[in-house]
Amino acid sequence: MTSKTTASLMAICVAYAACAMAGTALAQTTGTALAQTTGAAPAQAGAGAAAAVSGDAAEQPAAEAPAPAQASATLPNGQEIAADHMENGRWYTAEDIPTFKISDDGTVDWATFSGYRRYSAECHVCHGPDGEGSTYAPALKTSVLNMGYYDFLEIAASGKQEVNTTANLVMPAFGTNRNVWCYIDDIYAYLVARGVGDLPRGRPAKKESKSDEFAAQEDSCMSG
Amino acid sequence: MKKVVNGACLALLLSGTAALANDSVMAAIAKPEQWAIQTGDYANTRYSTLDQITKDNVKDLRVAWTFSTGVLRGHEGAPLVIGDIMYVHTPFPNNVFALDLNDNGKILWRYEPQQDPNVIAVMCCDTVNRGLSYADGMILLGQADTTVVALDAESGEVKWTNKIGDPGIGETLTATVVPIKDKVMVGISGGEYGVRGRMTALNLADGTEAWKAYSTGPDDEMLVDPEKTTHLGKPIGADSSLNSWEGDQWKIGGGPIWGWFSYDPDLNLVYYGTGNPSTWNPSQRPGDNKWSMTIMARDVDTGMAKWFYQMTPHDEWDYDGVNEMILTNQEFDGQERKLLTHFDRNGLAYTMDRETGELLVAEKFDPAVNWTTGVDMDPNSETYGRPAVVAEYSTEQNGEDENTTGVCPAALGTKDQQPAAFSPKTNLFYVPTNHVCMDYEPFRVAYTAGQPYVGATLSMYPAPDSHGGMGNFIAWDNIKGEIKWSLPEQFSVWSGALATAGDVVFYGTLEGYLKAIDAETGEELYKFKTPSGIIGNVMTYVHDGKQYVGILSGVGGWAGIGLAAGLTNPNEGLGAVGGYASLSQYTELGGQLTVFELPG
């Protein structure tokens, strides 16, 4: 089911990205499809579910200012980040938004580590190391705090252009790129972890191992 | 050994074959008051015989005038000066300005190409352009979208255009195009997109294609003769490239050509290096991946290859071989030799016989280099000419999904494209370098046309157990293979050097300083902080009898990606980050030319 969903998502992205249509429709389609997918799937709370969630301040009131939401469970954009359930080896919030899980000893979940790797391969040549931004592309660790998950997906799938008298900024469309799209939730979770300050710069030192579910979904997505 | 070959380079330029070469370029280069080619001369020495500015008076240098390019992002390359006109280029959108030096830099004409901005998205490392060239009354520009344009130098009128590549599959142009004889040499960028590297020679008169030589693939498409084209003195044999790849990987196997090209009129050979094999995951491309990472010598008229030398067979670290080949005539082992000196990304400096392709010297030009113990220099050895790879730092041997740590240099190389200079007065090379190491974790990637095709995660950090900075500016003896002196720099030195007959060497820094140092001792004589970080190359010219020095500021390029946010050292443990100064604390985006003069 998951592989089919992924494949259809990619097909959607191909269609829209190829037409170079800015994807409001795409975002809605993608978002809806994803939400339905993850929502319909059974929550697979693994052994790690009981482990303390980094930033486990679910009881604290939402951060109101756009200041770094250190140890807060709510982003400035109002999105919750507390890990609720697992699907395909990835953590999701109660609203089925991808998120991270870091235990007290700093061990990160595999998907977040995967996000680090894919970000560093596919995104960092423009957006700088560790989501910190470069001389010409924004710091995504900050962008994800203010931008919703579905907006993030839309831009990643369709790209973004700001070309005028003062700027020549062009982000490519990654909707057809398996190296990005098969890991887009991982990249998102990684950036959120960076943005809220729960994950320091650099390569995560300790990580969970890759689950069979994750590997199976990865294989079908990358070969599909 | 101290025998100084005065004017060796000049002799090269003025040799009797001048009539065969492009007269206009030769004549333009021969006038030291002009800066007629990006590399200073065909030999790529970046040496000027101008000597008004000396090591004694350079301390009095001051800003004469400035010019804003109106474009942000990384400014590589340098302006040209032909006669009384200065030609300034910009990164994408690749605008060109002709400035009247007789009228305080008034803009005589400007060229503002309309390019599909989608090309920006497939430029791996900022929208840089390494400058214009000049021939036969035309200014030549290689646009990001791979369109080569010839403009009338007086009016800016477009004489011809030819689009030699396809940005839709990740092909772009960043290198300067180089006019040689009746042709224009054009490279290609896109090693991170799985392009198939090639040199395209256009006819200077009308821009039509004369020949095209691929870096990989079948012999006829590479323009090689299996019996006559040699590698370290031996014929390369049939299907030398095809036999060194698995399956059809060579078709998306990289070997781009985006550095500098040099030319020896006597030998009628053009020299350049090829870049990384695609992907960065070595496990996905078994074999030596010929002829990526290779120094190439080709006949200018036909493109036929005379000799190759592959420096890094089966690359495992992204050590592109594209850096400049500096041609000098020097004494080696008691004999006058035609030499080629090349400072490779892999951290080794090579001295070769440029006529035969014989390897004479291969030594580390940064003591931090650790991925190899050195090159096998025994001609009778089976591994002659190959670098011995240290297993600990082999990303291939450690394998996919394994993080190989502490590799020096980083993928930036001990030196990237920022060109070195050579002074025939000191017989020294002045080399801007990086002093950065990395962790490198390769993993499997899928190929999609026009999408990044990388397949590795990197962390970069200043070389451990050193001065803490990320760069050095060194003086190199290419005969002994030794560093003469080394100046530590806080950031990588990403600016091309200039050596002059005034015994001064100039270079820029990422913080934005233009620095002048003593060519013999390296002593700092002058510095001035320009408005933005410098990744451009220093040039010099004379107008109305007075010597000027010019430099483009405008931080960016690959340096702007990694260094803008500062580098972290994962080996210092989780959380111990931010200990290194961040470039963004020193400079901001800009795009400005600063021209210096002596008072009076």
From TrEMBL, chain A:
<feature type="region of interest" description="Disordered">
    <location>
        <begin position="201"/>
        <end position="224"/>
    </location>
</feature>
<dbReference type="GO" id="GO:0009055">
    <property type="term" value="F:electron transfer activity"/>
</dbReference>
<dbReference type="InterPro" id="IPR022411">
    <property type="entry name" value="C-typ_cyt_methanol_metab-rel"/>
</dbReference>
<feature type="signal peptide">
    <location>
        <begin position="1"/>
        <end position="27"/>
    </location>
</feature>
<dbReference type="GO" id="GO:0020037">
    <property type="term" value="F:heme binding"/>
</dbReference>
<keyword id="KW-0732">Signal</keyword>
<dbReference type="InterPro" id="IPR036909">
    <property type="entry name" value="Cyt_c-like_dom_sf"/>
</dbReference>
<protein>
    <submittedName>
        <fullName>C-type cytochrome, methanol metabolism-related</fullName>
    </submittedName>
</protein>
TrEMBL record, chain B:
<feature type="active site" description="Proton acceptor">
    <location>
        <position position="318"/>
    </location>
</feature>
<dbReference type="GO" id="GO:0070968">
    <property type="term" value="F:pyrroloquinoline quinone binding"/>
</dbReference>
<dbReference type="InterPro" id="IPR017512">
    <property type="entry name" value="PQQ_MeOH/EtOH_DH"/>
</dbReference>
<feature type="binding site">
    <location>
        <position position="130"/>
    </location>
    <ligand>
        <name>pyrroloquinoline quinone</name>
    </ligand>
</feature>
<feature type="binding site">
    <location>
        <position position="76"/>
    </location>
    <ligand>
        <name>pyrroloquinoline quinone</name>
    </ligand>
</feature>
<feature type="binding site">
    <location>
        <position position="192"/>
    </location>
    <ligand>
        <name>Ca(2+)</name>
    </ligand>
</feature>
<feature type="domain" description="Pyrrolo-quinoline quinone repeat">
    <location>
        <begin position="492"/>
        <end position="549"/>
    </location>
</feature>
<keyword id="KW-0732">Signal</keyword>
<dbReference type="InterPro" id="IPR018391">
    <property type="entry name" value="PQQ_b-propeller_rpt"/>
</dbReference>
<feature type="binding site">
    <location>
        <position position="276"/>
    </location>
    <ligand>
        <name>Ca(2+)</name>
    </ligand>
</feature>
<keyword id="KW-0479">Metal-binding</keyword>
<dbReference type="InterPro" id="IPR011047">
    <property type="entry name" value="Quinoprotein_ADH-like_sf"/>
</dbReference>
<keyword id="KW-0560">Oxidoreductase</keyword>
<dbReference type="GO" id="GO:0016614">
    <property type="term" value="F:oxidoreductase activity, acting on CH-OH group of donors"/>
</dbReference>
<dbReference type="GO" id="GO:0016020">
    <property type="term" value="C:membrane"/>
</dbReference>
<protein>
    <submittedName>
        <fullName>PQQ-dependent dehydrogenase, methanol/ethanol family</fullName>
    </submittedName>
</protein>
<keyword id="KW-0634">PQQ</keyword>
<dbReference type="Pfam" id="PF01011">
    <property type="entry name" value="PQQ"/>
</dbReference>
<feature type="binding site">
    <location>
        <position position="174"/>
    </location>
    <ligand>
        <name>pyrroloquinoline quinone</name>
    </ligand>
</feature>
<comment type="similarity">
    <text>Belongs to the bacterial PQQ dehydrogenase family.</text>
</comment>
<keyword id="KW-1015">Disulfide bond</keyword>
<dbReference type="InterPro" id="IPR001479">
    <property type="entry name" value="Quinoprotein_DH_CS"/>
</dbReference>
